[in-house]
Design a protein that fits this description.
Layout lengths: L2 H26 L5 H20 L6 H26 L6 H21 L3 H23 L7 H28 L12 H38 L9 H18 L3 E8 L2 H8 L1 H19 L4 E4 L4 E7 L3 H17 L13 E7 L6 H17 L5 E4 L16
Parallel strand pairs: 4-5
Antiparallel strand pairs: 1-3, 1-4, 2-3
Helix pairs in contact: 1-2, 1-7, 2-3, 3-4, 3-5, 4-5, 5-6, 6-7, 9-10, 10-11
InterPro entries: Diguanylate_Cyclase, GGDEF_dom, Nucleotide_cyclase, Rev_trsase/Diguanyl_cyclase
Catalytic activity: 2 GTP = 3',3'-c-di-GMP + 2 diphosphate
GO molecular function: diguanylate cyclase activity
Length: 398
């Protein structure tokens, strides 16, 4: 087979393979639309390269326009997908101006003032601008993880490739006056090889990012209670022990609040499990709002909840519990009959010394039991210090 044809088919083949791979990923993760946009980008890129070699019945000039439209839309899709995946607001105006400006310049130097060299410069500078725009958007998040850092570097390299490589080759081997011998030129060979390499590297990085997204989602499902949206017991204990270690190192006070919904079994029996689920979700939302981003909140049992509050002593934690109790008992849960009052009881304990999570929870649970036993809808405190082991001093003679 002709070597030139093999090189010509290199980029379309790579692009179509990447398109298929992103489509497969998207079929399993429909909630991540950027994967479908990436598939569209690589499919358009394949079409753009094929139209560089095969002329449509509409003629060579319009085929070149169609090819560069494919490249431009592919570049827009790739840029927006990368930016969207990393939680940044997509600058559609900037992307549109760069892509549209490149296409407008191409048409000018194709139909008004025909000049192949300027067409090359116009399109490469437009794609270089898109690459640097992506790099600028990734700059604030480049320290969030390895994929962000690698994509930031690849975006910079892609921008330099479109600007520097193009200028160097055009100055060294240009100007180009026609397509005769163009596809055997140093410009086209370096363009094909650099595009193939950068496409593969960017795609591999995006595959890694998608895999990390799946792993984070699985971890979230493992540690999150689906009904309340809070941490489950496993997640709460893991996050809680980590928080206690950090507070012990920094010598910060920590307090624990346990809460239990009053008469929850009776409520389930009378109003049904759907109503019980609404009560749990409603209480969890109020607890999450009160804890904010500082506290660690979790649903550790059927109707039992826990909140670890850093930088809080016993008095501050009591105020927190009283505020949640008052707001919740005064409110109404949607779906329950008018006049149905739902309350909660609270037990509060402040950490003493380097007390571990388990004894701290035991003391808060004892306080919660007292609140339940003494009429419910109340807050009780644990004034007990954690259990210590008494070691007598050795007897000294003389």
């Amino acid at each position: 087979m002709d070597t030139g044809l093999l090189i010509a088919l290199l980029n379309p083949t790579i692009a179509l393979a990447l398109c298929a791979a992103f489509l497969v990923l998207w079929s399993y993760q429909r909630h991540r639309p950027y994967l479908a946009v990436l598939a569209i980008s690589y499919s358009l890129s394949a079409g753009g390269f094929l139209l560089q070699y095969f002329t449509l019945p509409i003629g060579m000039p319009l085929t070149k326009v169609a090819s560069n439209i494919c490249f431009s839309v592919a570049g827009c899709c790739l840029s927006s997908a990368i930016i969207h995946r990393h939680g940044r607001k997509v600058p559609y105006v900037g992307i549109g101006v760069l892509a549209g400006g490149g296409l407008a310049s191409l048409c000018w130097f194709l139909f008004v003032t025909p000049d192949l060299t300027w067409r090359i410069l116009a399109m490469n500078f437009a794609f270089g601008g898109l690459s640097l725009l992506v790099a600028a958007e990734l700059r604030p998040v480049r320290r969030n993880g390895p994929t962000e850092k690698i994509l930031f570097v690849l975006s910079l390299l892609s921008g330099l490739n479109f600007f520097v490589r193009t200028l160097v080759v055009v100055i060294a081997h240009g100007p180009f006056t026609s397509y005769d011998g163009f596809y055997d030129s140093s410009y086209w060979m370096t363009a094909l090889l650099s595009h193939a390499l950068l496409s593969l590297l960017i795609a591999l990085c995006l595959f890694s990012a998608a895999a990390l997204d799946v792993m984070r989602a699985l971890k979230t499902e493992t540690y999150t209670d689906p009904l309340s949206g809070l941490l489950n017991r496993r997640g709460f204990e893991e996050r809680g022990m980590l928080l206690l270690r950090h507070c012990a190192t920094a010598r910060f006070p920590v307090a624990l609040v346990l809460a239990d919904l009053d008469h929850f079994k009776a409520l389930n029996d009378v109003h049904g499990h759907a109503a019980g689920d609404r009560v749990i979700a409603d209480f969890a939302s109020k607890l999450r709002l009160a804890a904010g981003t500082r506290g660690v909140a979790g649903r550790i049992g059927g109707e039992e909840f826990a909140v670890l509050l850093p930088l809080s002593d016993l008095a501050a934690a009591r105020l927190f519990a009283e505020a949640v109790r008052t707001v919740y008992s005064a409110g109404h849960v949607d779906g329950l009959p008018a006049g149905t009052k739902v309350t909660a009881s609270f037990g509060v304990a402040a950490r003493s010394g380097d007390e571990a999570l388990e004894p701290l929870m035991r003391r808060a649970d004892d306080a919660l039991y007292k609140a339940k036993r003494n009429g419910r809808d109340s807050v009780r405190l644990s004034y007990e210090r954690p259990e210590t082991v008494f070691v007598p001093e050795p007897l000294r003679l003389g």
